[in-house]
């Protein structure tokens, strides 16, 4: 595997981009052998700048839900692009998309559009405050809702004042949620919950029905907003919103990632209770009316529904999960697989420093399969049983390389 072009780009970037790369996609945080730069992508495959091919299990960290370059999504997007993308206001596609989301998502009486997941979670919090006239937002410890001061996982460059009205609770812990509500002391604007607990490097947890019901009741008792952050999981678990599975409807939800199969778009949906508040706040962005992404989203959501894509992703995810479990048993290397099968996370037992996870992933990437050791992965509707079989062959090399770690380092 050559990586000379990747290395050369990293060196050039070090001079003109602080640190060479920002955020969680920095290859320095990934196991040995991972490329930083990619040249192209198609279906379930990715090619790095040196021409190495990978079977993709990160799907651009979520956005690619139908496979890279889905022909129907691309056709809809490029047809819109030919007509116009960045204009002086939205195209018809915005209304079509809002209508489609209102049709698909039970709590949604309206939708509005933005660009990034952080835009959507931040706007949802602002709407909750505007609609209630109160200030406190409850956030689960360790949950990720974006990269701006009110919610960034890093406190560098963040002031205490930025967090003055954020209170925390533990996901799936009703008592801690109630304690946080009590702490809000009559000033509660909203409770934000992730679709499920998908904190980096931790076992995933689906919400319990009891917790989801208690969160709904706590918001209702305080006349506050229940906000589901569906940025990461949205449209992979249910087209109507991830908390449909636990029978709870939020007041507001934040969406992004897979909504347009990789074209940049985010959305906030909400019920009529928050319509006037949404109309009253000021939000906008230079690219928020981009028509190409909205046309891509109409196509993406329509195809997901037409093809029953979630059921397909669940079947492929189950094959992967069963295959990994069987390899773990064969090699007698205990692992934990948690969360929904179409958003898999595999962690090794006794692996606090992630050395096993990194050894596993390094072996897999050398065999041309792109896994992640600590972040949940993503399946797409393009994955086939053949892809899963190939992934399991690479996983077998991964288990062998974990077995080969010396006991002192294992
Ligand atoms: N919420 C969740 C649950 C996310 O996973 C992410 C992105 N990983 C965000 C919000 C922020 O989205 P973005 O990076 O598009 O701003």
TrEMBL record:
UniProt keyword Transferase, yes or no: yes
GO molecular function terms noted in the UniProt entry: transaminase activity
Fetch the Pfam families from UniProt. Answer: Aminotran_3 (PF00202)
TM ranges are none
List the PROSITE patterns.
Answer: AA_TRANSFER_CLASS_3
Q: Which Gene3D superfamilies does its entry note?
A: Aspartate Aminotransferase, domain 1, Type I PLP-dependent aspartate aminotransferase-like (Major domain)
Q: Which cofactor does it need?
A: pyridoxal 5'-phosphate
SUPFAM superfamilies membership: PLP-dependent transferases
Is Transport given among the entry's keywords?
no
Domain of life from the UniProt record? Bacteria
The UniProt keyword set, sorted, is: Aminotransferase, Pyridoxal phosphate, Transferase
User: What PANTHER family does the annotation carry?
Assistant: GLUTAMATE-1-SEMIALDEHYDE 2,1-AMINOMUTASE, GLUTAMATE-1-SEMIALDEHYDE 2,1-AMINOMUTASE 1, CHLOROPLASTIC-RELATED
Hey, which family's this protein in? Belongs to the class-III pyridoxal-phosphate-dependent aminotransferase family.
What protein name is recorded for this chain? Aminotransferase class III-fold pyridoxal phosphate-dependent enzyme
Species of origin: Ancylobacter moscoviensis
